[in-house]
Amino acid sequence: MQVKILGCSGGIGGARRTMSLLVDDEIAIDAGSGLGDLALEQMARIDHVFLTHTHLDHTGFLPLLADAAAYLRQRPLEVHAQAQTIAALREHMLNGILWPDYSVKPSRENPYLRFHPLTVGQAVALGERRITALPALHAVPGVGYRIDSGAASFVYSGDTTLCPAFWEALNAIDNLACLMIEATFLNANRHVAAESGHMTAELLAQGLATLRRPVQLLIAHMESGREQESMAEVLAAAEKWQPRAVLQGETFVL
User: Looking at residue 74, what is its pLDDT?
Assistant: First the structure.
């Protein structure tokens, strides 16, 4: 199984791309602006999209993806998300005003995309791979994802502040290999982080203190323009875990 990082930034500007991962060229995890760098033929090969939550840096390219490659596809794009996320996308994005409702167009029988609600703890089997929704604590309902090849698991936190249930779920993963986790705000902005449901280096250290498994620690979703400051704080707070910033375009084989 290959996991490619299409976007890993907390914002835009220059070469930054917002959050999206590509699994084996067939599965997208989140639909940030990183998806837009794919060729149309690559977009058409994506059969499933798993969304962590509604925010635009994670969902903004979903309607564009469904539209751009529609004529190359013979089947709907299967979109997996929490029921609250699906409802919000229908009301605020696929509402006929911001974008057509491609879950019923061009027809209800053969739409461009089809929604599948999921819940925390639910696993979706796609061939030998299993995608499992993990707990998260954000400003809106959200999840992280465990992407399991059978041999190893890559975990992506989505957007979350300190969430004890998330770390408990990690401790239950016997083949945990990589953890890609957000560190959006500097420690000085801890109050903003708390209000918005995001992580700081201090909060990350508290979570790691409860983790009982070895893991490759990858830091993502840092505030645009403050990546170096953010990584310096993460290194100071979690040095023994040897954290590093995940890189756009990087591929992990599991």
Answer: 83
Q: Tell me the β-bridge partners of 149.
A: none
Question: Average pLDDT, stretch 129-145?
Answer: 98
- Using left for φ > 0, alpha for ψ between -120 and 50, and beta otherwise, residue 220 falls in beta
Whether the Cβ atoms of residue 17 and residue 7 lie closer than 8 Å to each other: yes
Q: Would you say 116 and 125 are in contact if contact means Cβ atoms under 8 Å apart? A: no
For 55-83, what is the mean pLDDT? 93
- Domain residue limits at 173: 2-253
**Nearest of 175, 151, 156 to residue 253 by alpha carbon:** 151
What are the φ/ψ torsions at residue 130 (nearest 5 degrees)? -130, 130
Q: What's the total number of domains in the chain?
A: 1
Res 68 pLDDT > 90: no
Of 95, 22, 97, nearest to 65 by C-alpha is: 22
Mean pLDDT calculated for residue range 17-43: 97
